[in-house]
Design brief:
Elements (H helix, E strand, L loop, with lengths): L4 E4 L1 H8 L3 H7 L3 E5 H8 L6 H11 L3 E3 L3 H14 L3 H13 L3 E3 L12 E3 L3
Parallel strand pairs: 1-2, 1-4, 2-3, 4-5
Helix pairs in contact: 1-2, 5-6
């Protein structure tokens, strides 16, 4: 993967910020898209230190944030009804599906969505 558009989910980015070499390698050289849900999840952690908040925000400033548009909401509803995922995961999956970019994740729950091109990395 070099210079491709990808959607990075929260689990991948948490591992990235925790120093995962695998996460760093797969993100290198990619055009990273992030669902607004991932942005919220990363920045709203109650025990997030001020310096960590700045680091995450700086990283997100170099990503493209995908807002919660009507098409993404519609896909989210279908995914929730069919697969019973948690709402944040359904929104992240719907974002990837709508953009037609692979989802890079470390969360195996995304396996159950057949129409999603999920690249699930093992920790």
């Amino acid at each position: 993967m070099n210079g491709d558009n990808i959607v990075a989910d929260t689990s991948l980015l948490v591992n990235f910020f925790n120093g995962s070499e695998l996460s760093r390698k797969v993100l290198e050289g990619q055009q990273i898209w992030v669902s607004v849900i991932t942005e919220i999840e990363l920045l709203s952690f109650a025990e997030l230190a001020k310096d960590d908040h700045k680091l995450i925000q700086s990283f997100l400033d170099h990503c493209i944030i995908a807002e919660l548009t009507k098409p993404i909401r519609d896909i989210t509803i279908k995914i929730r009804r069919q697969h019973r995922l948690k709402i944040p995961d359904a929104i992240i999956a719907a974002t990837s599906i709508h953009l037609d970019f692979p989802l890079l994740t470390m969360d195996s729950d995304f396996k159950k969505i057949s129409i999603l091109h999920a690249i699930i990395l093992e920790t």
